[in-house]
Amino acid sequence: MNWVNAVIQGILLGGQYALIACGLSLAFGVMRIVNLAHGDLAICGAYLGLVLSSALGVPVWVTLPLLLPAAFAAGMALQVLLLGRALRHGVLAPVLVTFGLSAMIENLLQVAATSDPRGLNGGALTLASFTVGSVTVSWLFLAAFLTACAVLSGLQLALSRTSWGRQVRAIADDLDTARLVGVNVAPVFATVAGIAVATAALAGVFIGTIGTFDPLAGTNTLIFAFEAVVIGGIGSLAGTLIGGIALGVTQVVVGEINQAYAVLAVHLLFLAVLVVRPGGLFAAHQAAHEPRRQGALG
Amino acid sequence: MTRDVTSSRDAEPSATVSRWSRTASVSTGAALLVVAFLAVLPYFVGGQAEQPLITLLTFIAMATLWNLLAGFSGLTSFGQQAYIGLGAYGLYLVASHGINPFAGVLLAAIGAAVVSLPVSALVLRLSGGYFAVATLVIAAVFQIAATLSPSVGGTTGVILPGLAGYGDVLREALTYWATLAVAVISVVGVYLLVRRTFGLDARAVSSDPVAAASSGVRVGRIRLLAYVIAAGGTGAVGALIALQTLYVEPTTVFSVQYSVYMLFMVLVGGLGTVEGPIIGALVLFALQETLSADGAWYLVIVGGLAVATTLVASRGIWGFASERFGWSLLPVGYRVRGHDR
Questions:
Q1: What is the pLDDT, as a whole number, of residue A295?
Q2: B148 at the A interface (CB within 8 A)?
Q3: Which among A95, A142, A276, A296 is most buried, taking Cβ atoms within 10 Å?
Q4: Residue in B with minimal Cα distance to A86
Q5: Interface pTM (ipTM) of the complex?
Q6: What does the H/E/C string look like for chain B?
């Protein structure tokens, strides 16, 4: 049993969870929507990667310049056509709508692609690795982790430095006041939804390259992303990364002892955090049962 | 508060306030006749008619209980399959200890309600979408726990014991009666519950918990009560499902499909009405009978209709009908009528 190795692999795995989770966290922080189809959208990204890379005969990475803008556009369309409308029907409607959407996506994927597990063509990266001491690191895992860090810090920078980011933070703090001072809310919502779906699709590509995926994988993907968000503190992107890493390390370390208990341990960690600090471990003065007060992004 | 409203109504002599109506009397009478007819049905027809009716009655019970949570109390749980599974496994445990499985349905329901108490302490800390995903996590935890327990068959599942002494005809008839009883108790129980102050309180909690708390509603207690009752009832439904299938397997009893069904029936029928879930159950049943040949498409349509209903007709079929025609078969509110005739 190699604990150092387990912890390092766990941290790398945690990066993937954070990558799926950041869109969920962002969408909640800004639009107050918990998108229950978020995991399914990530899996859709993986299927889109599968279609594109097998049609073009190239590793899935080459298709990202096509895939990511498509996912961004899909996210914007989703916001304009569905989520934005649902928001007008009160707080419960988005929850109901996104859960229905999740069921639709999962079963449409089953109709279109059967329930066979699939994997993505990651090219030479898939099997490449390097060894430091007793620890062997897969380049693919490292790439996923570094991508997650890059996406999260890029988002954080965009939120804190750009005019778009100022508008997003204003909306997250207080929607009505933001409107009052002239923020045009609809395009900001659309871009946030676009980013959420694009990052989910990117995470889906990594999920599909590292392991396999099937039409029903979305629900578990959502659960893991959600747990990363809650453990890290709702609405905090840095917290989301730490939350993801906490999940990943728990999963790999417990898996080292007994593989059957790995996922259960992750869920129990989440429930324990819920008991001790419902607002998350890394978010001060925030409680999950007070959704209106969770303004802080980052 | 209710008293004040009543007294101010009393001070207005030109109108009467009534809860019941002629429509309600007629529909209650008709409902009693239907239930009586359903109760004696096994004496006239065989298993062919019982099987689909069992499915329909299970749908009605599931939808009615989910409506108590989501429709009346604003708790959109998508993890009620946790209690379906607990009820099914509970029945297995009870039956394997030599207790009659039909009597065991009650014990399985009590078991599910007891388990839901500590669970509620966790999930009721959250609300809205966060509550919804947390309930999914709970269902996943129970499913994994069942998978990891060799005493309940692990991943392969277990056969329900204790039914060897019954012939097929008697067993099916008893299952049917048990399902009918659970469906009727669910509908009548939820109806009586939401007619009381609980109904008003629950709606207040659902629309604005902070405002409800500031008007003296005990928010935590209302949510706890709704959650535990729904869990117990759903546990009974789970036990009935085990009685029908005679086999308990983790992936089937903890399937998230049950939540999709509940969502569909309650939304399409009419969220937050007593009549709505019954109508939704009839619609789902009809859909299932017509489309069941193509499983995945059926669920696509079910999910799509649920989404469309929320966006286009958020009050559902019954909400639309009662608004359009002023119907109220099982009144929970009050009617005010002027005396100017």
A1: 38
A2: yes
A3: A95
A4: B311
A5: 0.86
A6: CHHHHHHHHHCCCCEEEECCCHHHHHHHHHHHHHHHHHHHHHHCCCHHHHHHHHHHHHHHHHHHHHHHHHHHHCCCCCCCHHHHHHHHHHHHHHHHCCCCHHHHHHHHHHHHHHHHHHHHHHHCCCCHHHHHHHHHHHHHHHHHHHHCCHHHCCCCCEECCCCCCCCHHHHHHHHHHHHHHHHHHHHHHHHHHHHCHHHHHHHHHHHCHHHHHHCCCCHHHHHHHHHHHHHHHHHHHHHHHHHHHCEECHHHHCCCHHHHHHHHHHHHHCCCCCCHHHHHHHHHHHHHHHHCCCHHHHHHHHHHHHHHHHHHCCCHHHHHHHHHHCCCCCCCCCEEEECCC
